[in-house]
């Protein structure tokens, strides 16, 4: 029997664990609402959550966020605000999710939107160059 080898990352995908996916979805909804309505920190005003990844054992939740600003100072303040809110977020999840073990919360900056904006900028430059050459 031939088996394919794939590195184990410990993170869930849709095919791996439906329960982990459901827990990740619940965490995304709960923490998004909490950041929108329950946290009074002004540093988190421009933060939005993009996705949540869970480890297989559901002990760690990695929450990916984006900041609706290009300013580096705003990004650093958002990171500091999220770091200070970690305990509050975890205690809120413990109260609302009803899990036996509340996952550790880790915030990670999601660079997908930054990369997408950069690609769009490059494609626009290429299109402008093509128009200038054809004229």
Could you explain how this protein is built, in words?
The protein has 135 residues and is an alpha+beta fold. It is built from three helices and three strands. A three-stranded mixed beta sheet has the order 1-2-3, covered by helices on one side. β2 (60-67), α2 and β3 form a beta-alpha-beta unit. α1 (18-38) packs across α2 (72-97). The longest helix has 26 residues, at 72-97. The radius of gyration is 19 Å and the shape is elongated.
How would you sum up the major sheet?
Answer: 3 strands, mixed
How many helices? The count is 3
Mean pLDDT: 85
- In helices, the fraction of residues equals 40-55%
**First-residue to last-residue Cα separation:** 61 Å
Structure described in brief:
This protein is an alpha+beta fold and 135 residues long.
What order do the helices and strands come in, and which of them pair?
Blueprint: H1 18-38, E1 47-54, E2 60-67, H2 72-97, E3 104-109, H3 112-134
Helix pairs in contact: 1-2
């Amino acid at each position: 029997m031939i088996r394919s080898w794939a590195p184990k990352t410990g993170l869930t995908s849709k095919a791996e664990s439906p329960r982990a996916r459901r827990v990740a979805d619940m965490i995304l909804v709960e923490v998004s609402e909490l950041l929108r309505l329950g946290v009074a920190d002004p540093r988190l005003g421009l933060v939005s959550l993009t996705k949540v990844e869970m480890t297989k054992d559901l002990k760690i939740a990695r929450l990916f966020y984006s900041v609706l600003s290009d300013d580096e100072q705003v990004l650093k303040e958002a990171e500091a605000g999220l770091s200070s809110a970690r305990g509050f977020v975890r205690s809120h999840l413990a109260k609302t999710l009803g899990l036996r073990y509340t996952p550790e919360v880790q915030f990670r900056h999601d660079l997908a939107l930054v990369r997408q904006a950069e690609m769009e900028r490059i494609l626009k430059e290429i299109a402008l160059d093509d128009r200038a050459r054809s004229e």
